């Protein structure tokens, strides 16, 4: 079982949090902080597994994370999950995001948290891995956005125009926070089909 | 209208959407909280509007704020509103918000039941999907109960997208509503063989998750999973299954044996590290579960260790970490194999990655021996000095202590060294583990008597230098050590050289800054020391010194009397008064030492931590009973119950108390005395425990002379190192001595024969420096064996510990809403409504009865057995003549359940047929043989004999075995029932006495049927082809194209190694071998494994076929390299692959109502076949058709049966088989006449062969 999926940036700002067990908002924030604290102090070239923090689950749980440029992707899992498998799943997740957002960067995640949630929901459901095939995940995500567009129809047009206008005068918006080299692969780990 | 919508949306286009909110928060970095609170106010306004779009937008923003830690539960109702929007976009926003912030305590959840149900049955798959996803996050027991049936229906949805989600969510439903597990399980099991890999994976996922918590209930699925494991190519599924087997093997060692070979093959063949790692892990689990005396598996262990070493040596830190993790599992059972990699593990201790260091530390625990303990600990001590983080340092500290104290200090040869290590550890600043060191010191000092003198000296030094430990900070955990030091110095003060000095140190004013409990120990032990000092000065003419001591105490103790800590205060004032009194006596020159010492006489023995719990409750003692009559809460209330309960009862209870006569009392008193004498906890009147001091053996313990030229007391110099040197010298000396002795021996023995040279110094040769007798911890006599499983009573999985093999009762059916038409009939229900001929029903119903009786009888195997049997026979006859309905209701109940009891015995059968390694077989020959017999007998007995029942559950792996059994059994049951069904009763329980009766029947068994036929063979290799039974229908993706999977077993018959096997087939227009992308149409496929001599392995090849109406023949070649020690040659083998039309048929269950409809529809064209001279029994005939031609029996009446199968392209094939007098006529119908013709030809051929 996956207990939680967290995405936060290098400063510990949450970009997405999905808990598959109920915690109060305060505890959730504490968990994010604690996880960030644990993960951020690790070097770049150390292993991607961590014994879980105190707040979430205790000794049975593990934190499995990957660090892409400005973002940390952290999965908190219990002993029934394969460590290397989850590591690969994170890769699949990021690659899917990259496909859906076309060169994903941190800003995409910041402004489209809902979309990220929807993509994640096609991959992990209620803490269990639903789909590991990237093309299947992105097909479903695309189908969703297609439906969204068709529903918005003409009514959505003005809103889209306005949001385009709003986005125009944003010179301060840094464009270069790319998620970076997503092709980091665990050696010898053949990806799941 | 459109204009209105546009206008409405223009109105709200200046509303803040999610992006605006995010942007705003980013622009208000300084006053974020204030900005967000205005936003929340806006959101509240938006939620009040009627426009659902505005509401959805607001809810979307709330979801974002929730992530930032804002409580949004106040908007729960609005979220429900948005969830119920008809637009997918809004619905999705609602469900997302709900999944993020709803939980069991959210009260509006109960409003959602109907909405969710509506969404689940929505015609749009994405509505259903979104509802399932959302529900998976917030399902409550109520929702689970109300929706279980709807979700179960969705498990058979036409869209795989919905199916897989429905399957996955069932796990959550089970957790919240355990009653749903049993009714839903058969369908869940069906999904394991779903054509869609995603659904299959989801089902595997759910069952694995269930089985992990309660593995024993899922053992019967092992054959199915085994088949999946050998057939699946999805690494996720494989990993899950392999992990599951890891959980199952401890329960069933036979399973482990069966697993070893395929797992080893996988380890050799796979290129995915994740899979390799899990395989190794499961092999380890298997090896652990098998008893250790299994020489055959040393190869497997070696393989695992080897592979793990490769992982650990890898530059990838992740693999290194996992390698170490798995290594620690091997360590528990096979420490020897791991110990040879000590170098590697010590190397990992220097890794820069803390996770890896921690794992390496875990491993060290098992690597120590008497020989290397000192060395390893020295290394760890160096790390302690270097370690920067306190967490890691604390971890090191606990590990050092763990390593040293493991299995009762087994590896410590020199306790002086250990005490010095502990003393050195006290210099760690800021550690949390002071109490750990303290308890070790206490433990060693108490239990290792020979070390007490040394320990006391060291502790005295510690007390003297207490200021170094307490340092500046009060909360320093290390001061706990002083607790131990003070106690040891006080308790064993007779070993002290300078008790006066220590007493002084313990009464320093600074002590008052220590925590209360330590001060209390100080005060108490100061009194003990005082007694020792007095005794020392006894007999001296000048009592000056003794009096000075009293004065010292009287001066210093008032400080403690003023302590805020109650315990300290009480002890101090007690002792102060005592000392004052003693001083008075001293002044009168009275000898007091003896009496003061007597105050502290007696030794405290170590008591096991669990001892208290283990004291058995004496017979007749009821701890819950009232000692006195319970006090009544109020007079008036007391009156009423007395009136309600009868008086007699009251009297009775009282008489129990009073009727104990004098004799009884005396007896009890005697017994109590006896018990007290034996009870180590009871403080006896005489100080008999004094004897411990003069126990034999202590005096003549050789205590090594410590080289005192090394200054012991200088703080800061690691003392333990000297022991290392000392130890080395000692060992060298020992060795030299031993060599001398051996030489002598050799000289003596020379005449007798040469003795093998004693190689390197072995474990046992190391003589401990101290002949220590380690006092074991005391346990009460006749303590109960440990049986306290600390299971968490709140574990939600406990509720799921449900026997899945029991037949389903009516009451267990999931609540079905009756006012809504069922979309799909559940197979269970279908079966009930089926128009099965009454005769069959009656028979099976009766048999069920019979079985029940059998069990009952076993329970009371008494003299009356015969009588009863008679009686039962009568009963049975009565039953037979009963009206049909009664039997039928019985049948209904039973039929609704899957025949899982049979499956359990199938498991036995499956396991017994496992290739058991010869040595193991020898070992267990008699018992396992018996097991085989009984279990197969049980399998024969217990399977219900409805032919149609078996098909849906049939696992492909055990198909032919099961069928065989079933047919046999069916026949037997009939006969037995007529003749001697008492045999049947016995064998049902699997008793040994009845094995013969169960198996040796007049009915000849079905000839074994194999799916595999010889494909080609030469002197090197044998190829066996399985009839393409793994057929995947993926019509949906490719029009007019279907895929057939062919399994080929390659067996190496030579003594050489076969490698680089390449498989190639000449494609025809119709059938093509599926090659990887980019490969040309004539390229060959590499077989993904190599074959060592005598090994066989199975490979699968996928062919795409366009038309399936005609049989196909394909020519192919296998090329391979034969590698022997001297040479390697290239060899080749030609073969012909024959695709029969049968191989395009998939065994598909069909219910008789559907079957009847199909025949009525008139779309099918008929054909018929007559077979003459068939002498085999009808059920054999059916079994053959089912097995070889992939049909399933729909219905069978006497000597007439209807059968069904479906082709991979969806053609229906129906057969009506009738037999009379060696003549079999088959009437067949199919929507594709040429296919039918070919299938009939093939059936004819099958029967002409025998």
From TrEMBL, chain A:
Name of this chain's protein: AP-3 complex subunit sigma-1-like
Signal peptide region: none
Keyword Ligase in annotation: no
Membrane topology qualifier: Peripheral membrane protein
GO cellular component entries: AP-3 adaptor complex; cytoplasmic vesicle membrane; Golgi apparatus
PROSITE patterns per record: CLAT_ADAPTOR_S
Family listed: Belongs to the adaptor complexes small subunit family.
Native source organism of the sequence: Carassius auratus
Main function: Part of the AP-3 complex, an adaptor-related complex which is not clathrin-associated. The complex is associated with the Golgi region as well as more peripheral structures. It facilitates the budding of vesicles from the Golgi membrane and may be directly involved in trafficking to lysosomes. In concert with the BLOC-1 complex, AP-3 is required to target cargos into vesicles assembled at cell bodies for delivery into neurites and nerve terminals.
Gene3D superfamilies, A to Z: 3.30.450.60
Single GO biological process annotation from the record: intracellular protein transport
Gene behind the chain: LOC113085676
UniProt keyword annotations, A-Z: Cytoplasmic vesicle, Golgi apparatus, Membrane, Protein transport, Transport
Domain AP complex mu/sigma subunit: 1-144
CDD domains hit by this protein: AP3_sigma
Cellular localization per UniProt: Cytoplasmic vesicle membrane; Golgi apparatus
Primary subcellular site in the record, as a coarse category: membrane
UniProtKB/TrEMBL annotation, chain B:
GO cellular component: AP-3 adaptor complex; axon cytoplasm; endosome membrane; Golgi membrane; presynaptic endosome; terminal bouton
Task of the protein: Part of the AP-3 complex, an adaptor-related complex which is not clathrin-associated. The complex is associated with the Golgi region as well as more peripheral structures. It facilitates the budding of vesicles from the Golgi membrane and may be directly involved in trafficking to lysosomes. Involved in process of CD8+ T-cell and NK cell degranulation. In concert with the BLOC-1 complex, AP-3 is required to target cargos into vesicles assembled at cell bodies for delivery into neurites and nerve terminals.
Biological processes annotated in GO: anterograde synaptic vesicle transport; Golgi to vacuole transport; neurotransmitter receptor transport, postsynaptic endosome to lysosome; protein targeting to vacuole; synaptic vesicle budding from endosome; synaptic vesicle membrane organization
Biased composition (Basic and acidic residues): 639-675, 724-739, 793-842, 853-865, 945-957
Predominant localisation class: cytoplasm
Region (Disordered): 622-685, 709-1012
Bias (Acidic residues) ranges: 775-792
Keywords (A to Z) from UniProt: Acetylation, Coiled coil, Cytoplasm, Golgi apparatus, Membrane, Phosphoprotein, Protein transport, Repeat, Transport
Record's bilayer topology term: Peripheral membrane protein
Gene: LOC113064994
Similarity remark: Belongs to the adaptor complexes large subunit family.
Annotated ranges, domain AP-3 complex subunit delta: 660-805
Biased composition regions of type Low complexity, renumbered to the chain: 895-904, 925-941
Protein localization: Cytoplasm; Golgi apparatus membrane
Biased composition (Basic residues): 740-753, 843-852, 974-986
Xref: InterPro entries: AP3_complex_dsu, AP3D_dom_metazoa, ARM-like, ARM-type_fold, Clathrin/coatomer_adapt-like_N, Mu_AP3
Official protein name in the record: AP-3 complex subunit delta-1
